[in-house]
Design goal:
The complex is a heterodimer of chains A (259) and B (124). Chain A has 259 residues and is an alpha/beta fold. Helix content of chain A is 33%, strand content 27%. Chain A has a nine-stranded mixed beta sheet with strand order 5-4-6-7-3-8-9-10-11, with helices on both faces. A two-stranded antiparallel sheet of chain A has the order 1-2. Chain A has a two-stranded antiparallel sheet with strand order 12-13. Chain A is globular, with a radius of gyration of 19 Å. The two termini of chain B are 13 Å apart. In chain B, helix 2 packs across helix 6 and helix 4 crosses helix 5. With 124 residues, chain B is of the alpha+beta class. Chain B has a three-stranded antiparallel beta sheet with strand order 1-3-2. In chain B, strand 2 and strand 3 form a beta hairpin. Chain B has a single domain, classed as Orthogonal Bundle (Arc Repressor Mutant, subunit A), CATH 1.10.10. The chains are: A alpha/beta (259), B alpha+beta (124). Chains A and B meet through strand 5 and helix 5 of A and strand 1 and strand 3 of B.
Chain lengths: 259, 124
């Protein structure tokens, strides 16, 4: 039996959570609140690939490519140079055009896969597909077709998705896309803000990874000068995903000690 | 008439002939200029009139004709994808190089003033 091929993300600590990286040719979802580091993690994944023999695409539906060049430069990643060397291309488009492109024979993305040897793609963000229809069944079919087209091209895909809650215990309406995506993708990674002692921290957890074991701890991460760094699990606390964790001892007292 | 020609020459006299040729060939409106700068800064954009107009902060009706003309002149590529018509910057390295030279030249205030005057006058 051959060992599973992994697409190493290059994010310190995160690859260990994934037991070596994402499985290649899979669709992977990265969900989190605005500003929590989804795009940075995605750029880090693409940059690592481009500098380690796996050219990549960034497909942006929201931000201008020039913002990626600028933000990447802030972490010391020269995306313009990678584009010049044909190891990267930052494409700005819309879901409807991308869908039409992937559906036709030898479209632009397929051409880049064969001409540049593209192996990875960051889709930032999949939330824009929600503009295409109000019908949840149609949306699920659209997303399914899109994910399969990227798999067909042999790409390891990372999709970002906005979570519209900042902290975990806010009320929210039923989220059809989240339900669809979490079933359709091969792995599902959640980034969250967590409030601890009046300070906001960032947390990461791998909720699902089809075909692979993975770390089930909720870990803290920081965004440093060279990108994301995943650290140790939160210790001695629970309720991290609620956004406002408490010490286990406090929970124990609340649950078992009469006042 | 003669005075006007002299004034025109005073404005365009120092423009590099290739840049002047580029101006004459492609830049006959400020919307086109804007679109060129947009495609230069975001060179792998491929999208519909409506979306490009949104990215550029313009009205689709104002942008549609300009995109079509830039495609006719070879600066952009027009592709039909089913019912969609999409535009992207030409992949021709020579055209990209000329666009790059034009946008970089536009950073210079003196050149910009001359080029603006040229566009207002409608070229000559």
């Amino acid at each position: 039996m051959q060992p599973e091929e992994r697409a190493v993300t290059g994010v310190p600590g995160f690859d260990a959570m994934l037991r070596g990286g994402f499985l290649t040719r899979t669709a992977n979802l990265l969900e989190g609140a605005p500003g929590c580091g989804k795009t940075t993690l995605g750029m880090q994944f693409i940059h690592y690939g481009a500098t380690h023999g796996e050219p990549g695409l960034i497909l942006t539906f929201e931000q201008f490519p020039e913002q990626y060049y600028r933000d990447a430069a802030g972490f010391g990643w020269d995306f313009r140079e990678l584009e010049r060397r044909r190891l990267l291309q930052v494409i700005m488009s819309s879901p409807e055009v991308t869908k039409a492109d992937l559906e036709r024979f030898n479209g632009r993305i397929a051409g880049l896969v064969s001409n540049m040897g593209v192996k990875r793609i960051l889709v930032d963000s999949i939330s824009q597909f929600e503009r295409m229809t109000d019908d949840p069944v149609e949306l699920r079919n659209l997303l399914h077709g899109f994910l399969n087209a990227l798999r067909r091209e042999g790409l390891t895909a990372l999709f970002t998705r906005e979570a519209y809650v900042l902290l975990g215990d806010e009320q929210r309406e039923e989220d059809e896309t989240e339900a669809s995506m979490s079933f359709l993708v091969d792995s599902y990674v959640l980034l969250r803000y967590v409030e601890i002692e009046s300070a906001i921290h960032r947390a990461i957890i791998v909720l699902k990874m089809r075909g692979s074991a993975h770390d089930t701890h909720i870990r803290q991460f920081d965004i440093g000068p060279h990108g994301l760094v995943v650290q140790e699990p939160f210790k001695g606390r629970e309720g991290i995903l609620s956004g406002t964790p408490q010490y286990m001892a406090e929970s124990f007292i609340k649950a078992f000690v009469r006042r | 008439m003669e005075r006007e020609n002299l004034a025109n020459r005073a404005y365009t006299g120092d423009i590099d002939p290739d840049l002047l040729d580029f101006l004459n060939q492609y830049v006959d409106s400020f919307i086109k200029w804007d679109l060129m700068r947009f495609f230069f800064n975001n060179p792998h954009t491929i999208d519909t009139v409506d979306n490009i107009a949104r990215y550029a902060g313009r009205n689709p009706e104002a942008v549609e004709q300009e995109l079509a003309e830039l495609a006719m002149r070879g600066l952009l590529e027009e592709t039909h994808m089913g019912t969609l018509v999409v535009y992207a910057l030409s992949a021709d390295p020579e055209i990209r190089d000329r666009l790059s030279r034009f946008i970089q030249a536009s950073e210079d205030r003196q050149f910009r003033i001359r080029a603006i005057y040229h566009v207002i006058k409608g070229g000559y």
